[in-house]
C-alpha cells in the first residue's frame, strides 16, 4: 500500500476513534504533502512523501528544544506526541552500526579520496537512509571518515 493511502486510512481510523491528537497530526502531514504537490505541480511518490515527513519531524524536534529552553513543557509535550505519531509512518530507524556500515560502503562505492568527494558519498547515502537516520549525524560521520 502506498504511503499516502496508509496516511488516509489512518486518518479515517483516527476519526472513528475520536483520537484528536493523531487525527490533527495526520491532517497536518497530509496538508504538507498536498501543499508540496500543488507548489511543484507533481504527484509525490513514497520517497518524496517520506522526505516531507522527515522534515516535519525535524521541525517538531527543533520546536521541542525551543519550548523546553523557554520553560514551556506543555507545548514541548504536544510536539513530542506529534513526533511519535509521525514516526509511525516512517521506516525503522537504523542503528549506529548499520549507519557506519552504510557510510563505509558508500565511501568505497564512490571511490572517495577526501573531503572534496563528500557530495558524492552523500549522494550515494541519501536514498538509502532517507527518513531512517539523522542526516546531520550521518554528514558528521562521513566528514570524520573522509578527514
UniProtKB/TrEMBL annotation:
InterPro entries: Asn/Gln_tRNA_amidoTrase-B-like, GatB_Yqey_C_2, YqeY/Aim41, YqeY/Aim41_N. It holds the Pfam family YqeY. It comes from the Bacteria. PANTHER family: ALTERED INHERITANCE OF MITOCHONDRIA PROTEIN 41, MITOCHONDRIAL. This is Glutamyl-tRNA amidotransferase.
Amino acid at each position: 500500500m502506498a504511503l499516502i493511502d496508509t496516511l488516509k486510512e489512518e486518518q479515517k481510523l483516527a476519526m472513528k476513534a475520536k483520537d484528536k491528537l493523531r487525527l490533527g497530526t495526520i491532517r497536518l502531514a497530509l496538508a504538507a504533502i498536498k501543499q508540496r504537490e500543488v507548489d511543484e505541480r507533481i504527484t509525490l511518490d513514497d520517497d518524496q512523501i517520506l522526505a516531507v515527513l522527515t522534515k516535519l519531524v525535524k521541525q517538531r524536534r527543533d520546536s521541542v528544544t525551543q519550548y523546553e529552553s523557554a520553560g514551556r513543557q506543555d507545548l514541548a509535550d504536544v510536539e513530542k506526541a506529534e513526533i511519535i505519531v509521525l514516526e509511525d509512518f516512517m521506516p525503522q530507524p537504523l542503528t549506529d552500526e548499520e549507519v557506519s556500515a552504510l557510510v563505509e560502503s558508500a565511501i568505497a562505492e564512490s571511490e572517495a579520496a577526501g573531503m572534496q568527494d563528500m557530495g558524492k558519498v552523500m549522494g550515494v547515502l541519501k536514498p538509502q537512509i532517507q527518513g531512517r537516520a539523522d542526516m546531520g549525524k550521518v554528514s558528521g560521520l562521513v566528514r570524520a571518515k573522509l578527514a
